Amino acid sequence: MRLPPATVRALLAACAERFPGGALVFDALPRLTAALARRAAAGTGGGRWAAPVRWGLDRGELPRLAGAHPGIAAVHEVAPVPAAGPPWRWTAYGLPSWLGQRAPVRALAPLVCEVRFAAARSPRRASSALS
Q1: For the range 6-14, what are the long-range contacts, defined as Cβ-Cβ under 8 Å and sequence gap of 24 or more?
Q2: pTM for this one?
Q3: What is the pLDDT of residues 54-97, one digit of tens each?
């Protein structure tokens, strides 16, 4: 989220080509949360958000991300691992799990995304008619 969008697309393409059958996991802020982070950083002279947040990714955009490169086989959100704590189980973002599932809160919460790359194609074997 701190790299320019064109650099992110190039990085995804490079990973898809260099790591066939692999995966890339990253976190991202939804667009509204990213905009709020940019606004907060502008008001505080940077502060906690020293590097600018340049883009956001909404959960509904994950299918579009899958079509960003032919070497991307699948994209999905990884559920955050619950942190240790009270019995009602807090999510990794410090929200009770029941609250994190509510649409308004979920729309603002960061997401962890897994991009799976297509397996390498095996080279075609020469036809026996050619030997």
Answers
A1: 8/55, 9/68, 9/69, 12/68, 12/69, 12/72, 12/115, 13/68, 13/69, 13/71
A2: 0.70
A3: 899 999 999 999 999 999 999 999 976 554 444 444 454 555 55
